[in-house]
Amino acid sequence: MQLGIIGMGKMGLNMALRLTQKGHEPIGFDLNSKALQEAKKNKLKVVSSLTDFKKVLKKPRIIWVMVPAGEPTNSTIAKLKDILESGDIIIDGGNSNYKDAQPTAQSLKEKSIGFIDAGTSGGIWGLQYGYCLMVGGEKTIVKKAEPIFKALAPENGYAHVGPVGAGHFVKMVHNGIEYAMLQAYAEGFSLMEKAQEFSLDLHQIASIWRYGSVVRSWLLELLEIALRDSSKFNLIEGIVVDSGEGRWTALEAIERGIPAPAITTSLFERYASRGNSEFANKIIAALRNEFGGHAVYTKSSSTTKKAKKIK
């Protein structure tokens, strides 16, 4: 199946590669020339402008937007609305606010362009293991794009969860839960790190907890990787960034009258980390770096500098 992918960054590129492995024909675009060059190095087809998609994609065209949420996504979709035609489909696979989905779908409907919001989880490991996909949209429109979702997801890792907006809503809650899980691991390992009378090997503990323990998870597997090389882990500053979904989840809980103390507290702990470099925050920063390639702050002499990934 043919489709366009806008955004050849850490997620978009790997998604295109996975789709190629599954026999599909992704065609990429990115405003960043280096990202396009990287796609070409990986033998992916690319276009040099959004308007080129209209020429190279067969009708009905499907274009997946995988750029940062907010203005980058909204402006890209607005441009595509002017380019695409009746029957074409736009998929928003970023971490957009679910409240934007319905207005976007209504706007695109003016030209009979379909819209799907696809909550996408898998981070930089998605190429290898697949992406969990939480998809929202009209059934008939989702069905047309379903071969793409099934190719990207591992077995049983894709679901059409509801109408437009549902995909991003479920992904928002997913990320709120992620905040709380990261916080729980961070607090537990911070407590063990302080119990210096036992000289605990934290990497060893993370390793054994992966087998038979009731707290085992993929995040724990990534923590074992993060702690494997202490010299790299020690470079990380305990400064944890939040990317929006935790805030939205906390606000939704408040608006709907649902107690969410773990998620809300984990969000506030991220705020606190920006003036306080504790061991617990190093754990969270390291885990975010492992599963999503998220930027971390690293030590450099007496200063702090930003880095995308510690290798």
Secondary-structure blueprint:
Layout: E1 2-6, H1 12-21, E2 25-29, H2 33-41, E3 45-46, H3 51-56, E4 62-65, H4 71-83, E5 89-92, H5 101-109, E6 114-121, H6 126-129, E7 132-136, H7 139-152, E8 158-162, H8 166-194, H9 202-208, H10 218-228, H11 230-233, H12 245-256, H13 261-273, H14 279-292, E9 296-300, E10 303-307
Parallel strand pairs: 1-2, 1-4, 2-3, 4-5, 5-6, 7-8
Antiparallel strand pairs: 6-7, 9-10
Helix pairs in contact: 8-12, 8-13, 8-14, 9-10, 10-14
Spatially, the strands of the biggest sheet line up as 3-2-1-4-5-6-7-8
* Estimated radius of gyration: 21 Å
Structural class: alpha/beta
Shape: globular
Unreliable runs: 301-311
Strand content: 15-25%
Q: Please estimate the helix content.
A: 40-55%
Main β-sheet description: 8 strands, mixed
Mean pLDDT: 93
Query: End-to-end span in angstroms?
Result: 35 Å
- Number of separate strands: 10
What is the H/E string? EHEHEHEHEHEHEHEHHHHHHHEE
Q: How large is the count of helical segments?
A: 14
Multimer state: single chain
How does this structure look, described?
The protein has 311 residues and is an alpha/beta fold. Helix content is 50%, strand content 15%. The chain contains 14 helices and ten strands. It has helices at 12-21, 33-41, 51-56, 71-83, 101-109, 126-129, 139-152, 166-194, 202-208, 218-228, 230-233, 245-256, 261-273, 279-292, and strands spanning 2-6, 25-29, 45-46, 62-65, 89-92, 114-121, 132-136, 158-162, 296-300, 303-307. It has an eight-stranded mixed sheet, sandwiched between helices. The protein has a two-stranded antiparallel ribbon with strand order 9-10. Helix 10 (218-228) crosses helix 14 (279-292). Mean pLDDT is 93; it is low at 301-311.
